[in-house]
TrEMBL record:
Taxonomic path: Eukaryota, Metazoa, Chordata, Craniata, Vertebrata
CDD domains: type2_17beta_HSD-like_SDR_c (cd09805)
The UniProt record lists the keyword Repressor: no
Entry protein name: Dehydrogenase/reductase SDR family member 9
InterPro entries (UniProt xref): NAD(P)-bd_dom_sf, SDR_fam
Matches recorded under Pfam families: adh_short
Keyword Signal in annotation: yes
Extent of the signal sequence: 1-20
UniProt record similarity statement: Belongs to the short-chain dehydrogenases/reductases (SDR) family.
Keyword line: Signal
Amino acid sequence: MLFWVLALLILCGFLWHYKGQLKITDITDKYIFITGCDTGFGNLAARTFDKKGFHVIAACLTESGSTALKEETSERLHTVILDVTDPESVKRTAQWVKIQTGEKGLWGLINNAGVLGMLAPTDWLTVEDYREPIEVNLFGLISVTLNMLPLVKKARGRVINISSIGGRLAFSGGGYAPSKYAVEAFNDSLRRDMKAFDVHVACIEPGLFKTDLSDPVKSTERKLTIWKHLSPDIKQQYGEDYIQKSLDKLKGTTSLVNMDPSLVVECMDHALTSVFPKTHYAAGKDAKTFWIPLSHMPAVLQDFFLLKQKVELANPKAV
């Protein structure tokens, strides 16, 4: 009996693997639109999918980013300047993409544009510190999706939203995690709403990657700027050396940082080209082995592991 159970499990595993390897065939006829292509995941994705034969429309925030990308890609790839937080810019871009894609519609929409914003203890921050990441990561993503959705429905295509492990666990104060939690909720409701239109919606949750977005030097500089304006009470509570100690703690977590951004692009590729794409993708060894499993654990365990990474305050009772 045990033999047949094991044989059945092996067969199911083989079929599941085989199912995941099945790919669509007519790539060269398909258009995809990617936001945030100046650097990072979006830039690599644009170059990768251009080489594969897709008609890539890459949205960049800056002219310099657009120019650099065009120099590295084929004539198939088109760039457009887009600020996802500007409704008029999004509408103009959607109209332009509609003309470019014609009757084919848009096979893939990859919502990749995002910012980290200020990561700091909550009582250091103002509402304005929360506003930028929420405007870009959430409202910008929703705005682009709503404007491009008719084109995706026309092609019966795919929507791929780049979230984060920060959408599973709030590892720091600031607007980044709230924006990504909300992206997860928007992704889930969109996925269910689009089922009837044969539009597949996927969410990618990258772990910690070495990119311009997560540069620890820039993050420390932002914290120092805020520190200068904090009240004497808060400075006394946290201690003058709090930021340096935080940076030292961060250096101890380098083993969790992924160095290869292609891991995220591979998830995008599967979501775009698989006959049976997944609904969720975890990208990076840390996401798969630590962050995602931890997100399913009781709050007391989550707090235990995450608080171990925080610096002990100098005098929390100095209130």
